[in-house]
Every structure is written in C-alpha cells, then in structure tokens.
Amino acid sequence: MHKLVVLYSKPAGPDHFRDYYVSNHLPLVKNWPGPLAWRYSFDVAALEGEAPYFAVFEADFADAAAMDAALASPHGQRLAADVANYATGGVVIIHYPVQDGTG
Question: What are this entry's molecular-function GO terms (predicted)?
Fold first, then answer.
C-alpha cells in the first residue's frame, strides 16, 4: 500500500476552510478514482505544545503507480487546483510506501 498525506497549516479563515472543504472539496474527493480509502480531520493535536497543522487528509492507494495515475488524472488535477480556494495557510504533501508492522 502507498499513502498520500496532506498537512494543512492554519488558514487565514478557519471557518471558511472548514465550510469550503466539507461542502466543495470533499465531494470532489468522493468521486476521485484511485484511492482505496481516504480520511480527514480538523482535530489535529500535538502530544506536546501546539500542533503545527490545522487539518490533515490521507488517502491509501494500491501502490505508488496507482497514486501517480490518480494525481495525474483530470480529476486529480482538478482536486489539486481546488486547494487554493481554501488552504490559505499552505500545505505540505508527503507520500510513502506503508510497511506492515506485524511481526
């Protein structure tokens, strides 16, 4: 499995971010071909101090090639372009292969 993680820094307008994300961006995600599963949260917390991120999104893909194809698709490009409509604090996007932790 391969995971895509989007870390959102605190936006200029947190209420706008939440409203737009839920009402406009997530409906696009729901129709995105490629992810096996996805999830998000606005309740990002740090074990100590203040969390450096406001929200997080993660998606699971079969492998890196499946993720690359989903991101390069017209729908993936539309999702990427939509981020500017709500993420005024910026984003950090990471991805990685997931290793099984069972022994």
Answer: oxidoreductase activity
Spatial separation of the C-alpha atoms in residues 90 and 72, rounded to whole Å: 21
CATH topology classification for 10-53+62-91: Alpha-Beta Plaits (3.30.70)
Q: What is the pLDDT of residues 51-96, one digit of tens each?
A: 999 999 999 999 999 999 999 999 999 999 999 999 999 999 999 9
CA atoms of 61 and 8, how far apart (whole Å) = 20
Cα 28 to Cα 49, 50, 52, 71, 74, distances in angstroms: 34, 30, 26, 13, 12
Largest CA distance in the chain: 45
The DSSP secondary-structure symbol of 55 reads: E
